[in-house]
Amino acid sequence: MNEGIMNESIPVLMYHSVSENPTAATRRLSVDPGALDRQVTFLAQNGYTGLTFSHLADALVNGKPLPEKPVVLTFDDGYADFAQVAWPILRSHDFPATVFVTSGWIDDAGSHAAGHPLGPMLNWAQVRELAAAGVEIGAHSHSHAQLDQCADAALCEELRIGRILLEDCVGTPVRSLAYPFGYSTPRVRVAARAAGYRCAASVRNIRATASGDPFMIPRLTIRRSTDDNDFASIMSGDKRFYLRDRVLTAGYATVRGARRAGKRVVQHG
Known about the structure:
Layout: H1 3-7, E1 9-10, E2 12-15, H2 33-45, E3 49-51, H3 53-62, E4 70-77, H4 80-92, E5 98-101, H5 124-132, E6 136-139, H6 152-170, E7 176-178, H7 186-194, E8 199-204, E9 208-209, E10 217-221, H8 228-236, H9 243-268
Parallel strand pairs: 2-4, 2-10, 3-4, 4-5, 5-6, 7-8, 8-10
Antiparallel strand pairs: 1-9
Helix pairs in contact: 2-4
């Protein structure tokens, strides 16, 4: 494997809704369109080259060369404002993107509707158009379930249905996945591989490296509260910036593990 890749850490940014007037449910993890434009302008002016999530995963796994300053922009859930607002901004700066779509939340999902969308969502025609324009379409489960809490059969269905519906829409294999809420366990990652995925995104708020698990590629959370100075700190690799997030994530992992253990006791008691 190329030594440069082995030693490199790559920022993979996680966005959600991009809207001036987000819903109450999406507000905290949304960004204002003007903020996104400034952030992408910052990346362009500072020599960053955008990659899709699968492109990065393939390079890290197979030791393929990367540009000098790679960055990946990902957008979770599949909000309608990606097509209406975010993609025009990205396209104007010639930056690619990966959208992780919750298939059951699609606006015209019909009989396949599942879960509870948090805002206006993409429809199937928009997903197809985005894929044709070069946006990578990845899966985000079918109903946005907490996969680490699902029983085995339900877990497999969440992963299978999400991938199949998206592949039927875009006409190409869907090989990337983002875990809803960022939650995964070894069991979930094994199931993701078995379902046909080749890489998956977590959260973790650290940078990606070649030594990491391709089914646990970490991302950095971009929020509505992320101002221009914050964004510059994130891109500089300031490890102190997400310290509180990482502490909270570690603590909550313990809680979720206890919850899973409690479920097993109830099931087998």
